[in-house]
From TrEMBL:
Cross-referenced NCBIfam families: sigpep_I_bact
Enzymatic reactions: Cleavage of hydrophobic, N-terminal signal or leader sequences from secreted and periplasmic proteins
Full protein name: Signal peptidase I
Enzyme class: hydrolase
InterPro entries: LexA/Signal_pep-like_sf, Pept_S26A_signal_pept_1, Pept_S26A_signal_pept_1_CS, Pept_S26A_signal_pept_1_Lys-AS, Peptidase_S26
An example Gene Ontology molecular-function term: signal peptidase activity
Length: 184
């Protein structure tokens, strides 16, 4: 059996430096890739208030899809993450009205374009807030409300939300494990 030749000290040092360089490059690429994914594709967010109670609760962790609104228009009923000048903190709300929709509230019930909306996820009654009804959602904006209608700061107080303020759509609940799964 042939014995490998022992390496000289300079050659061994060169091998160690090459190994360190390779590991550093690999870790740098992995970190940069994960940061890009978190900033532009998929992120994790936390529910920080009670406005979505009934569907989501304070402290729950969600997976946010940041890509879909770059390629597709939002849909009525989406649970959206808002990060814009309308409010100083990120908000999690349900998208109720699209551009051009007429929003009306009568006897604690929501009407969109004259049709009564069945909203089994809503907690409490729906009131108008400070918005004059009926309200037409302007172009380039959406109308959002929390599912816990009596305890929500939303478009009834803030006004319409610019489409550019929609950071993403909540698609999955990560935590707590007892409610782990896809959001409806």
């Amino acid at each position: 059996m042939r014995q490998p030749k022992p390496q000289s000290a300079p050659a061994a040092k060169k091998g160690v430096f090459r190994e360190i360089r390779d590991w550093t490059l690999t870790l740098s690429i992995a970190i940069a890739g994960s940061l890009l994914i978190q900033n532009y594709a998929i992120a994790q967010t936390e529910v920080q208030n009670v406005s979505m109670q009934g569907t989501l609760y304070e402290g729950q962790r969600l997976v946010e899809d940041k890509l879909s609104y770059r390629f597709n228009a939002p849909d009525r009923g989406d649970i959206v993450i808002i990060n814009g000048p309308e409010y100083e903190r990120r908000l999690v709300k349900r998208l109720i009205g699209l551009p051009g929709d007429v929003i009306d509230i009568q006897a604690g019930r929501l009407y969109i374009n004259g049709e009564l909306q069945e909203e089994p996820y809503v907690k409490g009654s729906t009131y108008a807030g400070s918005v004059s009804l009926p309200y037409t959602v302007p172009e380039g904006h959406v109308f959002v409300m929390g599912d816990n209608r009596e305890h929500s700061i939303d478009s009834r107080e803030l006004g319409p939300i610019a489409l550019s303020s929609l950071e993403g759509r909540a698609i999955f609940r990560l935590w707590p494990l007892g409610v782990f799964g896809q959001l409806d």
